[in-house]
């Protein structure tokens, strides 16, 4: 045997043996010797060295045995025994052992299957927890305004800059924030959203920054991490930043400057590595003028600013949005639309969409419930009264008596919608009109989204 072949044989990972036709050992590689714990056995009968061997039988019969189970040292092995022929006669037999234990292999296969299941589960869970379920390709619209904004945002996503997203209610601010995170180098880190307006002022500080053990009565004994700490190595979305109370604005400014947080009641600070995206639908410059928002914080946040145009300024996006939203809604409601009447487009284009894409989505969802066949018609599109020429959803009385809970919920939803419209999309003012608290407004608003 050439030197190379000898070296390969000797060092092969699999245990290998070569015998002559009578079962006398000619070669036994290191792996096999180590497994059998034998040294120099060349020339000995294989039956003396390896239990349950059939090398000598194969040598006599000249018929290969593939994948035969052979027990050696209490382990089940898969053995291949191949006669090597020369001019019709067996001159040697090559034996290899594939896996050292079949049970081990089965267990391994089962383990791999289980790990695969677990991996799928964790991947899904991770995505869910990171919350970044939206990507740029899910932000639809062919209008130049939107396309340019998407392109710019994609570029911004790669940097670590703080971003301020402004835009009317329902324009897709949260969608953009998600997509920026998903496109950034922090995408494997957490994405944490805090709605600064929905949390009562008294709780916001501990929500954001956490608290130490015994910081106040009722505090969980071991203290609690704040959203900033939870967002470490990821992104935090400070939604409705315009509604943040002034004292907290000062604290937030410090966090952005020092890159460390101080839990309520803590003596030490904790360093954090968090990218901040803030969003608002209020006019920040106006709030600054009125003394409701700190100018220094505004400039800290507004390193990169993205302003999402309202839907009425990009009505070209309607076809793509409608088809996309109908597809989404079709999945959740099980109602498919085969065709859309031309008049529908006329109605949709004639409306001012104060609630933007979210309102469009709600209008379409309602339309799906009203459809009798699979054609979307003008009469299925219910828009509020104030836009001339279109019927109010409240004035169209429902024909059948339905569960009271449903009727109440619809009335509540409609009231929120109208209040938002009157308030020009400002949620704080909408809450005032309805004479309910800001956080209770948010709670209800989010319930119907
Ligand atoms: N360009 C778009 N393409 C597809 N869906 C969109 C688009 N813009 C918004 N949406 C959808 O509209 C809804 C509202 O979007 P989002 O929650 O991001 O709005 P928002 O600006 O954060 O609103 P708010 O100020 O009320 O919080 C979501 O269901 C979102 O998926
Ligand atoms: Mg939002």
UniProtKB/TrEMBL annotation:
Entry-linked PROSITE patterns: SIGMA54_INTERACT_1, SIGMA54_INTERACT_3, SIGMA54_INTERACT_4
An annotated Gene Ontology molecular function: ATP binding
Keyword Plastid attributed: no
Lineage, top ranks: Bacteria, Bacillati, Bacillota, Bacilli, Bacillales
Biological process annotations from GO: regulation of DNA-templated transcription
Endoplasmic reticulum is among the record's keywords: no
InterPro entries: AAA+_ATPase (IPR003593), AAA_lid_NorR (IPR058031), Homeodomain-like_sf (IPR009057), HTH_Fis (IPR002197), P-loop_NTPase (IPR027417), PAS (IPR000014), PAS-like_dom_sf (IPR035965), PAS_fold (IPR013767)
Domain Sigma-54 factor interaction: 139-369
Pfam families per the UniProt record, alphabetical: AAA_lid_14 (PF25601), HTH_8 (PF02954), PAS (PF00989), Sigma54_activat (PF00158)
Name this polypeptide is given: Probable transcriptional regulator
Origin species: Brevibacillus brevis (strain 47 / JCM 6285 / NBRC 100599)
Classification via SUPFAM superfamilies: Homeodomain-like, P-loop containing nucleoside triphosphate hydrolases, PYP-like sensor domain (PAS domain)
Keywords: ATP-binding, Nucleotide-binding, Transcription, Transcription regulation
């Amino acid at each position: 045997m050439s030197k190379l072949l000898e070296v390969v044989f000797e060092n092969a990972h699999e245990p290998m043996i070569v015998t002559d036709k009578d079962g006398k050992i000619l070669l036994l590689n290191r792996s096999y010797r180590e497994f059998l714990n034998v040294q120099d056995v060349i020339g000995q009968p294989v039956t003396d060295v390896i239990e349950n061997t059939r090398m000598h039988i194969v040598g006599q019969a000249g018929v290969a045995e593939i994948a035969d189970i052979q027990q050696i040292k209490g382990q089940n092995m898969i053995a291949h025994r191949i006669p090597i022929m020369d001019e019709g006669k067996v001159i040697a037999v090559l034996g290899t052992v594939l896996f050292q234990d079949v049970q081990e292999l089965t267990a391994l296969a089962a383990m791999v299957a289980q790990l695969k299941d677990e991996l799928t589960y964790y991947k899904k869970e991770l995505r869910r927890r990171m919350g970044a379920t939206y990507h740029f390709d899910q932000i639809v619209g062919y209008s130049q305004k939107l396309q340019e904004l998407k392109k710019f945002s994609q570029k911004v996503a790669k940097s670590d800059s703080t971003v301020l997203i402004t835009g009317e209610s329902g324009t897709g601010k949260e969608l953009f924030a998600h997509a920026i995170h998903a496109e950034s180098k922090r995408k494997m880190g957490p994405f944490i959203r805090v709605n600064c307006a929905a949390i009562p002022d008294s709780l916001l500080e501990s929500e954001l920054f956490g608290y130490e053990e015994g910081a106040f009565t009722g505090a969980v004994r071991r203290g609690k991490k704040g959203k900033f700490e939870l967002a470490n190595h990821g992104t935090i979305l400070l939604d409705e930043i315009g509604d943040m109370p002034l004292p907290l604005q000062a604290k937030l400014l410090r966090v952005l400057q020092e890159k460390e947080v101080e839990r309520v009641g803590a003596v030490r600070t904790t360093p954090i590595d968090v990218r901040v995206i803030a969003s608002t639908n209020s006019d920040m410059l106006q709030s600054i003028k009125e003394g409701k928002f700190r100018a220094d914080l505004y400039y800290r946040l507004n390193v990169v600013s993205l302003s999402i145009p309202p839907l009425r300024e990009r009505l070209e996006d309607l076809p793509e949005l409608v088809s996309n939203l109908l597809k989404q809604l079709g999945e959740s409601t099980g109602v498919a639309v085969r065709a859309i009447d031309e008049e529908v487009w006329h109605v949709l284009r004639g409306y001012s969409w104060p609630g933007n894409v979210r309102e469009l989505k709600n209008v379409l969802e309602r339309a799906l419930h009203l459809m009798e066949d699979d054609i979307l018609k003008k009469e299925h599109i219910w828009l509020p009264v104030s836009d001339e020429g279109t019927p109010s959803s409240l004035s169209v009385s429902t024909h059948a008596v339905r569960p009271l809970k449903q009727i109440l919920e619809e009335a509540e939803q409609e009231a929120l919608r109208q209040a938002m419209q009157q308030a020009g999309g400002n949620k704080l003012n909408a809450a005032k009109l309805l004479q309910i608290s800001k956080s209770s407004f948010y709670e209800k608003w989010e319930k119907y989204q």
